Amino acid sequence: MLSKRAQNLKPSPTLFLVAKAKELQAQGHPVISLTVGEPDWPTFPVAAKAGQEAIEKGITKYTPASGTVELRQAIASKMKADFDVDYGVKNITVASGAKFIIFGALQMLISPGDEVIINSPYWVSYPTMIELADGVPVIVECDEKDHFKMTPEKLERAITSRTKVFLFCSPSNPTGLVYSKSELKALVEVLKKHPDIIIISDDMYNRLMFDGSKIAHHILHVAPELKDRVLCVNGGSKAYSMTGWRIGWAAGPEKIITAMSDYQSQSTGSPSSISQYAAVAAIKHADPDIDEVVKKLIQRKSFALSEFKKIPQLRVIEPQGAFYLWVEMRSLYGKSYKGQKILSSKDFADILLNHFYVATVPGNECGCDGYLRLSFACTEGEMQEAIRRMASCIEQLS
Ligand SMILES: Cc1ncc(COP(=O)(O)O)c(C=O)c1O
């Protein structure tokens, strides 16, 4: 009955895990979910109020497929402030979430067989999105000695005549690690030798930085001359805690943006008018709220790191941004829980979920076994209890 495309489709593993956790919860189990990439703080009042105001004012109709001019102007001003680049409204498109932005960009850039270079560990959705565009994900393994980041040598080696896009994310989901200025410069040197490659910079977490900076280093900071090849992706979901409002955007070359906007006009249509109105308020006025949230995240990170010291079998890679802990668990390989052997991070994550009711994302899903991704966008109490259960699980392994 279904198309070939449907038969090859893998559902989002994180959303699958969220559903599984909810199912266990519905059965009455005390599940703590550290899976979903979602802030636990509410949408900032300035944005929530604007959303209400939009409904009251009747701003409840279609907008241009690429988003309202007001929102695109607000994004352009932000891009100017953040990266000192000049974008007009024709360089910006807004969609129902950054996920659809990346999806649409790949649909518009990739012809069958074109290659997209990503590093592993990667955000769970990248490979499937590339495949859905008939592209080939070229996954470059970047392990701990590379701080899980792409190196210039590895990038150079991965490039072929079919390479169309280099897609990367900083701060990274899943590791929370951030490319330094010099690391970006080194990648730029390689990319300059290959002028046909489009660079997609997934900046979803770039305001959630733990070193006191307002924004993560960016490829446009170190190489503004690449502006005509860089597509910047961002949105309301993470820093502004607007996951359910579904607003994401891209800024980049007009040709790509127009194609993405046309694609959208024939698929989802415009994003929600109400959400767009709220996003304008968030972008213009929520910076002080973000500062508060970042302070809270830094505290939570320190708390989680100190609690994890109680479990010597697990090693946490300290994140520099976003809200994930990347936790190494390879010392547990070969151990068993009630006869169930741990041979991968998925095995351990399954035991944690089914027997200790702690939901985590196994590194396999991010293309990097031996690690778990844990979100610390939760209360310290939840994190403490999750860590206590993990310790109890590990104690009971034979
Ligand atoms: C790295 C990364 N990019 C993009 C997205 C998409 O976010 P949204 O579709 O909620 O805007 C996410 C969300 O989890 C993400 O982690």
Description:
By secondary structure, the protein is of the alpha/beta class. The protein folds into two domains: 4-30 and 288-395, Aspartate Aminotransferase, domain 1 (Alpha-Beta Complex); 45-285, Aspartate Aminotransferase, domain 2, CATH 3.40.640. The protein contains 14 helices and 15 strands. The strands form four sheets. The chain has a seven-stranded mixed sheet, with helices on both faces. It has a four-stranded antiparallel sheet with strand order 9-10-15-14. Helix 3 (45-56) runs antiparallel to helix 11 (273-285), helix 7 (152-158) runs parallel beside helix 8 and helix 12 packs parallel to helix 14. The structure holds pyridoxal-5'-phosphate (PLP). Pyridoxal-5'-phosphate (PLP) is lined by residues 37, 97-99, 123, 169, 173, 202, 204, 235, 237, 243, 248.
Topology:
Elements: H1 4-8, H2 13-26, E1 32-33, H3 45-56, H4 69-83, E2 92-95, H5 98-109, E3 115-120, H6 126-132, E4 136-141, H7 152-158, E5 163-169, H8 181-192, E6 198-202, H9 219-222, E7 230-235, E8 248-251, H10 254-265, H11 273-285, H12 287-308, E9 315-317, E10 324-328, E11 336-337, E12 340-341, H13 345-356, E13 358-359, E14 361-362, E15 371-375, H14 380-395
Parallel strand pairs: 1-13, 3-4, 3-5, 5-6, 6-7
Antiparallel strand pairs: 2-8, 7-8, 9-10, 10-15, 11-12, 14-15
Helix pairs in contact: 3-11, 4-11, 5-10, 7-8, 12-14
The chain binds pyridoxal-5'-phosphate.
